[in-house]
Write a structure and sequence with these properties.
Blueprint (H helix, E strand, L loop, with lengths): L12 E4 L5 E4 L5 H9 L8 E2 L4 E2 L1 E4 L4 H9 L2 H10 L2 H13 L9 E3 L10 H5 L3 E12 L5 E5 L5 E8 L14 E6 L18 E7 L6 E5 L6 E3 L11 E10 L2
Parallel strand pairs: 6-7
Antiparallel strand pairs: 1-2, 2-12, 3-5, 4-8, 5-7, 7-14, 8-13, 9-12, 9-14, 10-11, 10-13
Length: 253
């Protein structure tokens, strides 16, 4: 990967292992590159509302893909970062980091296919018994006045999620909320949630909270109980949007 290998770093990671593995890393993106990415964030008009998940808007391969790829073609900074996330190195480095923290995911006979754009397993992969996985990222916007993401555990095909705060130091007020919260259903008979049903905010207990601060990555493993949320934001109507980049490493299925 050459110099691209220095785009991210897991060196400053803390860990939480219960109720499921979570890493919090700051800084995560090389500072000069991070500033350039924040400054060149896509315009709000390119995003699509994803109200079924809460109150937020997304721009990705799946949400407004034409706008997404057009934006990447016109942004050298983001095109470079996109190529890095699509590289084999990114997934390999993430798995090495997790292994070093005693978080070992069962990925025997692994084949990384991020660059191939597969939506279902390849015939070659099926015939050869390979586990095909891929990485992609999503730009997300959330209104500081009422934005939210409901409690959920992520879709069954996801393996690892990385949520990166894309804000300048001092831009966001912690009194507005915006942190990623780890939660569990108040009715503990509903903890098991491999199929990723959503719950209401009043139906969960908050176990921990990671404040929304600049250049921080929250990494968590998809499990049957990987409940998390962003509670409704409490900022003024003229506050800046909560900007995050979500990277998903997932099985092709």
């Amino acid at each position: 990967m050459g110099k691209e290998a220095g785009l991210i770093s897991f060196a400053h990671a803390g860990m939480r292992y219960e109720p499921y593995p979570i890493a919090y890393i700051q800084p995560f993106i090389e500072p000069t590159a991070y500033d350039a990415l924040v400054q060149s964030w896509p315009e709000q008009s390119l995003f699509k509302s994803t109200a079924e998940l809460g109150k937020k808007a997304s721009l990705s391969e799946r949400y407004n893909p034409d706008n997404y790829f057009r934006f990447l073609s016109n942004s050298p900074q983001w095109a470079r970062f996109h190529d890095f996330i699509k590289s084999d190195f990114f997934i390999e480095e993430t798995l090495r980091f997790l292994d070093s923290k005693n978080v070992m995911i069962n990925l025997d006979n692994l084949r990384i296919v991020s660059k191939k754009g597969l939506k279902r397993p390849s015939l070659w992969g099926r015939l050869n018994g390979r586990q095909e996985i891929s990485a992609r990222f999503e730009f997300s916007l959330m209104d500081a006045h009422g934005g939210s993401i409901r409690p959920h555990t992520d879709s069954p095909n996801k393996l690892i999620t990385l949520v990166i705060s894309m804000t300048q130091p001092g831009e966001w007020n912690d009194a507005w909320g915006g942190g990623t919260e780890i939660c569990l259903p108040k009715d503990r008979t509903k903890v098991y949630n491999d199929v990723n049903r959503y719950m209401d905010f009043d139906d969960v207990d908050v176990i921990d909270r990671f404040p929304f601060v600049a250049n921080q990555c929250i990494l968590f493993i998809k499990t049957y109980n990987s409940w998390h949320q962003v509670a409704p934001l409490r900022g003024p109507e003229n506050a800046p949007m909560r900007r995050t980049l979500t990277i998903n490493i997932e099985r092709i299925a």
